[in-house]
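Quick one: structure for this chain?
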Amino acid sequence: MTKIVSAIVICAMVAHMIRPLGLPGLRRRGDVWKLALGAFVLIAAVTMVRPE
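Got it. Here's what it folds into:
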C-alpha cells in the first residue's frame, strides 16, 4: 500500500512541477513541499494502521 501511495504522490509532484495543480494551497510551483509533507503523513498513518 505504501508503494502505491508513494507512486501516486511522486506522479502528482512531477505534474505539479510542470503545471501547478491549482488546488487551494497548491497554486505555485514552490508548493511541492506540501505534497511531500502530506505524503509523509499519509505513509506514516498507513504504516501505523497496517497490522503486522
